[in-house]
Design a protein that fits this description.
One of its GO terms (molecular function) is ATP hydrolysis activity. Helices cover about 30% and strands about 25% of the residues. The protein has 9 helices and 15 strands. The longest helix is centred in the middle third of the chain and has 17 residues. Bound molecules: adenosine-5'-triphosphate (ATP). The site of adenosine-5'-triphosphate has 11 residues, from helix 1.
Length: about 280
Amino acid sequence: MTAPLAINKVTKTIDDFQLHINNLHIEEGTITAIIGANGAGKSTLFKMIMNLVKQESGSIQVYGESVNAQEDSWKQHIAYQAQTLHGYDAFTGKMLGTLMSDIYPNWDEALYRSLSQKLDVPLNKRVKKLSPGVKTKLNIALTLAKNTPFLLLDEPTAAMDIPSRTYFLDTLLQVTEERNKTVVFASHQADDIKKLADYLVFLQDGKASELFEKDTFTSSYRQFWLKDEPETSIPGEIQRTYKKVILSNDPDATLDYITHNNLEVMDEQVPELEDIIPLLLTKGE
Ligand SMILES: Nc1ncnc2c1ncn2[C@@H]1O[C@H](COP(=O)(O)OP(=O)(O)OP(=O)(O)O)[C@@H](O)[C@H]1O
């Protein structure tokens, strides 16, 4: 089966910003979070995948088809949710549903109606009259109802209230599992990433990391609660809190040092994803 997304050696320069994606292959039926701080290049990457922005070099394929080719039937297999809903101000949600049902052969009207109802989106109001948060929710209902095998979501829960966010995340997980969908979403919300993602990719200063399996990634870090504050920096140490709690990205090296220096460990734990993500989002870390 052809991979939903295959990116090889892609580069893009915008003024003094450079984006490099060496190798990113997304397997069918997986959920991948693209994690990066503001300005890290997440939206630019998504726009390149949708051929809205052209890369300078390298290749991007969706289900084996180059996104830069003239033939663009691959677009029917992917639902892209941009950060904002542009160009639809004069339409109502109902009109947009009718429009999308003509374009997307598997349009799921029942899902569109139930999502809109649960998320409190009035389908009879014109888009320009909706608040930013309600526009985001309409955008989400439209994206999921396209019922494509591949979903590309750019910060889907930004500006959403908590009940809607919870409902959306649960529905996305359910739909993804029941219909074996592939999801790639951009986020810097640790909660969303923890709940949704199977795999993680970090974008830092325009460079994409390799693809990490989420649990393998968190278990490569360790938090050590020491009895006394160490005098010097410890091998593997990337953060020290309350003077005695050491977060390490090299637990073996840290433990080796602790043992050789007779430091007493009060407790040792695999950290939560939300403890690690902020450190990785900091520029130049
Ligand atoms: N249309 C544009 N004109 C000029 N610079 C741009 C444009 N679009 C993006 N950039 C620059 O490209 C870089 C990456 O921006 P991008 O929007 O892809 O980041 P992002 O990770 O999606 O950020 P955010 O989390 O704030 O949405 C930034 O330095 C930004 O200033």
